[in-house]
Amino acid sequence: MNGRLLIMRHGEAAPGHPDSERMLTARGHAEAERMADWLGHQALVGARLYASPFVRARQTASPVAEALGVEPEVLPIITPDDSPVAVCDWLLANADGAAPTVLVSHMPLVGLLTELLVEGRAQRGLAFATAAVAELESAVWAAGCARLLRFTAPHDIR
Question: Pick from 134, 97, 94: which is nearest to 116 by CA?
Answer without folding.
Answer: 134
